[in-house]
Amino acid sequence: MTPAFAAPGTPALPLHVIEGSALDSWLDTQEAPVRGWVVANGFTGARGQTLLVPGPEGTPAMALVGYATPAERARHRFLLAGAAQALPAGTYRIASGLSGAALATEAFGWLIAGYSFDRYRDKAPAAARALIAPEGLDAGRIETLAAAECLTRDLINTPASDMGPAELEAAARSLAETFDATVAVTEGTALLDQNFPMIHAVGRASPRAPRLIDLRWGDSGPKLTLVGKGVCFDTGGLDLKPAVSMALMKKDMGGAANVLGLARSIMASGLAVQLRVLIPAVENAVSGNAFRPGDILTSRKGLTVEINNTDAEGRLVLADALALAAEEDPDLIVSMATLTGAARVAVGPDIAPFFTDDEDAAAALARAGASMADPVWRLPFHDPYELKIEPGIADLDNAPGGGFAGAITAALFLRRFAGAGRYVHFDIYAWSPAATPARPKGGLAQGSRALFYALPEMLGL
Fold it and tell me: For the chain: N or C, fewer Cβ within 10 A?
């Protein structure tokens, strides 16, 4: 789908978004018949309430949506989108009740509420509830973000049978063609020739050739490199996952899907950066030539890695890509990956934890995440845990024992390859486990919207 606001000038029903505490003051501005109708129908401004108010001819003259209380809004995201589903099909314009960041967030939620993944089933189109772009809103930017969200969801929701390394490459090439970017791909045994040994090692057991996808766009401004984990399906390798843990592994390329969505937003908005997107795309499969527990791999950077668990493969493919990224000394490197279960234990599925040593970047991300309903939370690069990733027999251990601080030790592992420049790592879930307003169960963009809004500040634009 291509989310878009209704064309300006389209006949639209006025929509008033009313917080419970503001209802009385709003009613004071209305004629007696409107006041009587609202009171008689028990509208209080509570969360999820909607009400059509008739005009003199009996046809709807306006619609009301309850906007709850500030405390409830802190607990429930995209309230307008949730309430809008109870309104009849038609076109609406926000007449009162929203401004600033809340207006942008709710308008974005309205657009993405229309998302549905229908590739594999016949489904009648849902009743359309269109919205006129509110005055004072950068409608193009909101539409851009909504399109990026839908791209990310589509990529994650597609099953691994139709979203392997080649299909992920095709998605990157399609995006590049749309925005006049370039793509270079290193595939199969050429990974060994070009010194990406760990990407090759993880992906070599699958008949679907591993590859490194390298997209570039822009020729001026700060250098920004995005690195996304593209494990298109993760069996766990020889350390095979149990069935319950393998069920969602089509989403293990969620980091790649998120950086492609973010790249789309950056290119569509014309952000003045030199953008590079690196995606190591592999399938972690099982066969006679699979890499083994106890193997020692030599990375692109030259650091050796002892394999203590083949199910800790994401950090291996990211390590080679991060080493390549660091060789150009960009102004900022950002990695995004569905990397550890430990991150989910720490913050749950709804929050995107991130790691950085850059205080200004951390503050910018926190502000952007809060204002755009894209919750992020900083976790520490805790230096004393460096000892946990040093096994003694090799430079690094890909799966330290003990069961503690798994998200932190994984992030520390990646930092070893990201160079000495500015680096931010996101350990995301990329999945909504239950349907909520504007967020159906399934693939999800996490952290990428906060990044998009924070990047100008982070890069001095």
Answer: C
